[in-house]
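Input structure tokens:
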């Protein structure tokens, strides 16, 4: 399995960002081949973190691309700073 993690700082309205992600982005993630799970976390203090889990690297990479497009087109005013993006293979799990 592969995971893509995106950390956003300076989120201006976490509740609205969560609503838009839930209504617009989650359905996009479910369409990506190899989709396993998606989580959008409010870490507090204007920080939000997304975690996308896929069966293969191609799915994780596709999620990164789709996230960039979705943020640009729908969330730019709420997520004003570029995210820190990390991705890799799951090497241990419970």
């Amino acid at each position: 399995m592969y995971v893509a993690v995106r950390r956003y700082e300076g989120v201006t309205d976490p509740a609205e960002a969560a609503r838009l992600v839930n209504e617009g982005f989650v359905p996009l993630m479910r369409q990506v081949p190899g989709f396993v799970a998606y989580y959008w976390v409010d870490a507090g203090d204007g920080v939000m973190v997304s975690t996308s889990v896929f069966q293969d690297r191609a799915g994780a990479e596709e999620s990164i691309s789709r996230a960039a497009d979705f943020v640009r087109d729908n969330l730019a005013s709420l997520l004003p700073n570029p995210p820190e993006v990390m991705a890799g293979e799951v090497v241990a799990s419970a």
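The chain has two helices and four strands. The chain has a mean pLDDT of 96.
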